[in-house]
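TOKENISED FOLD:
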Amino acid sequence: MIQADANLIRQALDEADIVPLTMSLVQITGDRSWLDRIAPHIRGAWDYMQSVPDALAAEIRQALAAEIEKGGEARLANPDQDTLQHMLGVAVGAQVSAEYIPLIIEQIGFQPSAKMPQETRQAAPRSDISAIIIGAGASGVCASIRFRQAGIPHVIFEKNEDVGGTWFENRYPGCAVDTPNHFYQYSFEPNNDWPNYYSRRESINDYIGAVARKHDVRAAVRFRTEVVSARYDEQRAMWQVQVRTNQGLETHEANILVTAVGQLNRPAIPPIPGLEDFRGTHIHTAAWHDGIDIRNKRVALIGTGASAIQVGPAMVNDVAELKILQRSAPWVVRSPNIHRLVTDGKKWALKELPFYAQWYRFQLFWGFADGLFPALKIDPNWNDDNRSINAWNARLREGMVRYIERELEGRPDLIEKAVPDYPPYGKRVLADCGWYKMLRRDHVQLIDDQIERIVPEGIRLVGGEVVAVDVIVFATGFHAAKMLWPMEIAGRGGVTIRDVWGDDNPRAYLGMTARDFPNLFVLYGPNTGLGHGGSAIFLAECQVNFVTMCIDMMRSRQAREFEVRREVADAYQTTMDEELKGLVWSHPAVRSWYKNKSGRIVINQPWRLIDYWNATRAPNPDDYELS
């Protein structure tokens, strides 16, 4: 029973979202008629796609308040499959296939997960196997929790002085998550107290740190310890890992090696000639530190990707001039919640109102992931002069362009530069945190002439103009395709990762296991990225669960080695590459870091989240050689 003042309850219900409130009401009362009444007014998962009449919304809130004050048990706490599927469809205004129900039950929290419990049940460690995890970011923390639960002795080597990974390292002004926070979190540790809908890096880093403390992850971590190399000893079926500490080099070994370093770990500065001659200061967003002074300086921002969209508006008030050097325009869309705080009433509903948080998270899952997937598929019969790839994609483009035109009204010069020349979702669509308003400022200039070289006083463009600046900020991404670099990893027969992958052509079965590298598991590896939305933490949970079950399979069969079959890995790669050809990232108008220099997509996966979740629920013994 909820213990709260009646006025507080009604105020909280006024601030909470009407669709999750309705779903809570249905489960509490068992009255399914509310679904039929609200369904005609829901066209999608986002609030701007819902137009519930004020009178109906007030009736729902009043009925829910009365039920809360009355108390008692929920009459529909565990809906049958048909009812749950119907509710899911109503909640997002779409047909939701029954295939999603097991995923929703586990990931969204309608039932506690047996795999990742709220309180870690530590199994007795077994001496038959051990693991080394590289990295204590979101994936590494997740792996440590799961391994501890499974009784797998392990150590984590982390080059930084604390957990958090990219959220510990990135400190540039405006750094924040671009995935809705209530989706970007561990399913087994839901946080209903996020301060923002899109929280700043400090809040996310604090969250990962709090999860690590609760599950005693730090006890397994060796901080300020960077992995230099790893070599597989075939005779002993052991990985020998060399690390660098303040005291020098050390060698450690374990049966299992798990890399949890991610793709967005090593900053990339493009090889623009003349950088060494620049008289000013230059910095990459991922290497930002407190010593960088941009106040009243002439600043050049190179790049218009995710970090640029955040750092530009965050520093525009402090600089004397801001020059944006744009190679290609990004799709930046209206996001009303980008700066909003989560109200106390909304937090109350998330924490106290039965079923509300689960329904809210499901809407985010659908609206930010699989609900968007059809917009990514290239219709071979669609011809829109490279502007879009199918009818839905075209409608999305129209709405995005209208938003740009509204934001830049009266500035046709900016509109011409700001509207992308490729279909929506060809690159990650970004939430507008003030980008277009920044472009309108008198001391801001958007430059789409290409860079020729850097000169002592600034940047020379191919047209001959020299842009004089004091500071250059590189928002130019990471060495994402050069995965696991700069570590030297050698597998069977001494073959190295670079021998097999080169500098930009990584390949792995399910993005995790590679032939000739027994007992090696790569988290957030090749072709596991999500170019349209989704949550990297969701993927981490899928992969960590899969890796743990692979180790369990080794134990049960008393195997020393676990290695994907070559024909399985090759067939998967062929299928995946073929699937990718039908998606927007392969469109000829799209040039992005998702592709390597030969044009193959190496970052993104072609699957829906439900597909990858199903593929990683349990390993197929026939896919692997165990010996």
